[in-house]
């Protein structure tokens, strides 16, 4: 293309005149976005916008990693440390879902215990127990219901043969209690709670704790054991007043 061609005014446009530069500086900015009646934006601009948008998810991930507690001070150790900190923070706040094997077995046994206690408490309430026995049954509903939710939040409990046997044992004991009513039922229910929580402590100590591998599962079992011991002490106290 010749120099004369470059300097030639385009068809339909007047040549530049004196004062055009000043007017151009004061002109409003050109809106490159699509208007209701205009042409679509330039393809090059569209590709640039797409390249600017694509990295955003990556930037968000890095922001989350390096905003983890303590990550700002440990950044010299690199991405691996920040990733570890972020995963630890997520596990602390949102539960642990990667448990397997022996941990699942321990969680399965614990979930079965919780379910048995909940079913017995529901039966006691339906039998219209009163006083301390009713208060105890309501405590069992609340405490074991909350513990069951925490147990399931740690990971999928196992449903192996030992777990199935524990559930079956609970159903049989419930059927025995169901044949009673009135004061006889109330006494039998509390006696069953003394035996059940005593057996639960033994099960936690001899089977669940040795099977636990994940720190979160061990922590949950330790906390559960303390609650079970309190429930046992309370059941013994009620049984002694009858």
Automatic annotation (TrEMBL):
Signal peptide: none annotated. Residues 1-43 are annotated as: Disordered. It holds the Pfam family DUF4142. It comes from the Bacteria. Residues 102-238 form the DUF4142 domain. This is DUF4142 domain-containing protein. It comes from Lysobacter silvisoli.
